[in-house]
Design brief:
Arc Repressor Mutant, subunit A, single chain, 15 helices, WH-like_DNA-bd_sf, Rossmann fold, binds S-adenosylmethionine, O-methyltransferase C-terminal domain-containing protein
Length: 384
Amino acid sequence: MIPLAIGSFVTLLALGLFRLTRQWLAERRRRQRIEREFWARQSRDAVTRLVSDAAAAIPAPLEVLQQHAAVSSTVQAIVVARELGMLRFIDDRPGTTADELAAHFGFVERPVRAWVELLAAAGVLEGRDHGLALTEAARFYLYPDSPFFDSSLPAASISRSLLHTLRSGSAGGSKAKWSEGSAHHAALWGPAMHRFSFPLGFALDASGLLAGRRAILDVAGGIGSMCVALALRDLSRQLTLLELPGSVDLARQLTDRYGVADRVRCIGGDMFQVAWPGGFDAVLFTNIFHDWNDERCLELARRAYASLKPGGLVLVQEALLDEDRPGPLWTAHFSLMMALDMEARQFRPSQLRDLLAEAGFVDLRVMPLLGYNSSVVGARPLTG
Ligand SMILES: C[S@@+](CC[C@H](N)C(=O)[O-])C[C@H]1O[C@@H](n2cnc3c(N)ncnc32)[C@H](O)[C@@H]1O
C-alpha cells in the first residue's frame, strides 16, 4: 500500500515538474520572439521611408488600439468594485469620498482614488475624489438582481496579489527591482516602452519645443527611444541618456543600430544616487513621473533644475488627466495601472505645474504632443 502511495506521489511530482518546465520554456520562447521581432524592426532606412518629410507631423496611435487595452481592464475594474461591495457602499452613502471608501475597505487611498477616477470616467460613478454617487446606468445594468442586469459581463478576477497591493499599497515587480537599482527585464520593458516613446520623440521634435536646444539630458530614458528619435531629426543635437545599467546596454545597441551612437552619450547609474552632469539646454522625463510619488518627483525636478543652464527647459511627457472632469478613460485606466504596479499615478496638468513650480521652474505651460500625451514645460529662470 505504502510503496503504491509513494509511487503515485512521485508520478504526480514528475508530472508537475514537467508542466512547470514546459510553461517556463514556452515563456522563454515568447520573450525571445518578442526581442527578436523588436530588433528586426529597428532600422534607420525604414524610419526614413516613413518619416521622409522633415516637417511632417507623426500620426497619433489608432484610437481603437488604445481603447482595446483600456476597455477590458476598465470592465474588470467595474466588476471587481461591484464584487467587493464598493458600488453598493457608495449607493448606500451618496456623497461619500474616495478616502472614506478606502478607509471602509481597509485599502490604501492612492489606488482607490485612481480606481474611482476610472469608474467615474466609465460612467459608473458621478463625482471624483468626493461627493461620489452611483449613476442610474450602473444601478440598472451592473447589479445582478436588477431585471436589466447585463449578464454578458465577465466574472471578477480578484487575485491575492491585487488584494495585497490594495491593502499594503506596495507593488512588487519592476518597481521593487528599480528601487534596488536593477533594470528589471529591460529586454522586455524597453520594447514595450519604445512603442510609446519612439513616436513621442518625433512628436516632441515636431512641436518645436526643443528648437535651438542642443544639449539635452534624457533622464531614465529607457533603451534610448526618445534620444534616437531626437538625434535622427536634428544632427546638431548632443544627447545624454541616464539610465540603470541594464537598460543602458540596450540603449547603446539601439543608438548604434540607428547610427547615432556618436551623439548619444549613455550613463549607467541610479538617478537618485549618482551626480547628474550639468550645462544642459533641456532635461526630459518621459513617462517617469508617473512611476514615483510626489516627494521623489520633486527630487527629480530639483535635480533637473541643477543640471540646466539658466533659461534651460524641463519637459515632462505624460498622459494627463482632464483638469475639471474624470478621464479620459484611457488615461484613467493607465493611472490605475500605475497605482497598482508602480505605487504612483497619472497627473492632472495643475498637479505637474505645481510640482515644477515648487522646484523653482517658471513660465509653466502644457503642450499636447501625440494621442493622450502632453509635455508639461518649465524654464529655469535666467537669474537665480
Ligand atoms: C516607464 S519606463 C520609461 C522609459 C523611457 N523614458 C521611455 O519613455 O521609453 C521607466 C524607466 O525608468 C528607469 N528607471 C527606474 N528607476 C530608475 C533609477 N533609479 N535610475 C535610472 N533609471 C531608472 C527604468 O529602467 C525604465 O527604463
